[in-house]
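The instructor's notes for this session suggest beginning with a concrete chain rather than abstract definitions. Hand out the sequence below and ask the class to guess, before any prediction is shown, which regions might be ordered.
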Amino acid sequence: MWTKYRRQAGVLLIITVLLSSLAGCAPAPQPAPEKPVVVKHAMVKMQQLLEAHPQQEKLRQLEQSVAAAAEQSQRPSAEAMNEAKREFDAAMEVRRNQDLQAIDKKEAQLKEKLNEERRVFLESLEAEYRPLLVNLDLKLATLQYAPAEKQKVQQERDRVEAERQGKIAAKDAELAAVFKKESSNFVDELARSSKAYADQWMNERMTRMQTEAAASAASPASEAQRKEMLELSGRVMRDIKQAVTVVAEREKIDMVWVYPVVRQQATDITDAVVRELKK
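After discussion, reveal the predicted structure:
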C-alpha cells in the first residue's frame, strides 16, 4: 500500500441503566444497536499520476542527463582506449620476448640433462656390448676359420651390433618423448601465466581509466543537475500525495491503495487525482 488515509469517525453510545426493584418498576430502555463501521477503499495508478504531473517532462530530461553523465563516467574516451591498446601491445611484446627466452633456456637445460642421461646410457651399453663385439672381431680376423664358420661369426656380430643399435634407438626415442612432453608442458604453463598477466594488466588499466573518467565527469554542473533531479523528484511525490489526500478527504475515502497492490474492492480515483494535480 502506497499510503493510507483514515477519516476520524466515532460512534456515540449512551447506555442508561435504571435500577428498579422487582415490584412496580418500569422496565429499563434497551440500548440502540451499534451501526457497523464501513471502511471505504480506493486506488490510484501511480505511473499515470507521475506522467500527469506538470513537471514530469522536466524530471525526465534531468534523469536522462544524469544517467548519461553516469554512463560517461564509466566509459573511457577513445583516446584513452587507443593509448591503452598501444601500451598493452608493447607490454605483451616484452612478455612474448621474455617467454621465448625462457623457452630457449628451458630447452637448453632439458637438452643438457637428456644428453647427460644418454651419455651415461651409452657408457653402460658400451661396457655391455664392447667385449662381445671385440671378441667377434678377433674371431673374424683369425685365418684358420673356414668360410662357413666365418660367415656364421659375421652373422652373430651383425646381430649383436643390431641389438646394440636398437637399444640406442629406443633410448633416443624415449629421450625425445621426454623432451617433447616437458617442453610442451613448460610452454603451456607460460601461456597460462601470460594470459593471466594480460588479463590482470587490462583489468588494472581499465579500472584506472574508469576512475580517471569518473573524476573528470564529476563536474559541479553534473552534481548540480543530480541535486536538482532529486529535489524535483521529491517535490513531484509530495504533490501527488497532497492531491491524493485532497481527493480522499473530499470523497470521504478511508484507505487509498496503489494499483496493482489492491487487496480490497476499491474505487479508481486516478482521474480525480490527475485533475487535482493540474489545478
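Then share the key points. The chain is about 70% helix and 5% strand. Confidence is low (pLDDT under 50) at residues 1-26.
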